[in-house]
Prior knowledge:
This protein has 206 residues and is an alpha+beta fold. It has four helices and 13 strands.
Amino acid sequence: MFTGIVETTGTVKNIETQGSNKIFSIASVLGPELRVxxxxxxxxxxxxxxxxxxxxxxxxxxxxxxxxxxLGDLKVGDSVNLERSxxxxxxxDGHIVQGHVDQTGICTRYEELDGSWLYDFEYxxxxxxxxxxxxxxxxxxxxxxxxxxxxxxxxxxIIPYTFENTNxxxxxxxxxxxxxxxxxGKYIQRMFEMGYADYLKGKVQS
Length: 206
């Protein structure tokens, strides 16, 4: 489990193809602190560290992950947002992030304001995912508050710290990003789909 508070960015040093999988070698300041079998969020995707050599760690992304995320589009030299799994005993600064990307979205607008940056994103609403005003979403592993929510689109504002310390500084109109929608919202939606809301309503009335 993660919080969506990115610790640092890494740089893709090498990409190997192994069948339908891709093995990424990523260099970062976290490298010496990692261990094999550790869970690590890469642009919001939870992957297992399989090897470490000084500041470089390796992870494998399977075909399903490559299809549902933007990891398959990564090239050598690209920047990747990194976050280690949440530690108990620390403050919960972001929101509940599983590291399971629901789908990708596209940046449709980028605007630099006086001291912040505005981004609009669109996604395929046919998947059933949605956002709510002032709710949370995870974009490339970054926990953000959404507004101007519409079916298949939303807007976020990025502060200078987030802009400088994540790969948001490279996101522009047309960029593909990973989206993980709020898990609580997904559970509530599933309850309605399965008729639990009517069941609970009947229980209350009885």
